[in-house]
């Protein structure tokens, strides 16, 4: 389940990219990554270092 949860932001990014463009896809990626971090923190009690780096990459893709 945890591995599937890690791919959801990426899948949402590509779907949004195909439907709406790169700017909207980047926004969806950031929001989905934030939601993913909250779910992981709530369910497992911790967020791994690699997952934190995805959050930084998501923010940098918007700016």
From TrEMBL:
Annotated transmembrane regions: 25-42
Record-level GO cellular component terms: plasma membrane
Sorted UniProt keywords: Cell membrane, Membrane, Transmembrane, Transmembrane helix
InterPro entries given in the database record: YciB
Entry annotated with the keyword NAD: no
Record's protein name: Intracellular septation protein A
């Amino acid at each position: 389940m945890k591995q599937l949860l890690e791919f959801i932001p990426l899948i949402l990014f590509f779907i949004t990219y195909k439907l709406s463009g790169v700017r909207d896809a980047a926004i969806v990626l950031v929001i989905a990554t934030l939601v993913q971090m909250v779910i992981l923190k709530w369910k497992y009690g911790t967020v791994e270092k690699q997952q934190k780096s995805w959050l930084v990459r998501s923010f940098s893709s918007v700016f």
